Amino acid sequence: MSKFRIDLQLFTGEKTEKATPKRRREAREKGQVNQSKDINSALVLLFVFVVINFIHGYWYSEMYKFYHSIIGYASSVNSIYTIQSISYILNNTLWIIIKLSMPLLFTSLLVGLICSYMQVGFLFTTKTLEVKLDKINPISGFKRIFSMKSVVELVKGLLKISILMYVAASYLVQEYNNIINVFDMELSQTIAYLWSVVFNIVIRASIILLILAVLDYIYKKWEFEKELKMSKQEIKEEYKQTEGDPQIKSKIKAKQRQIAMSRMMQDVPTADVVITNPTHFAVALAYDDKGDSAPKVIAKGQDLIAQNIKRIANENDIPLYENKPLARKLFYNVEIGDLIPPELYHAVAEVLAYIYSLKN
Question: Is residue 157 part of a domain?
Answer without folding.
Answer: yes
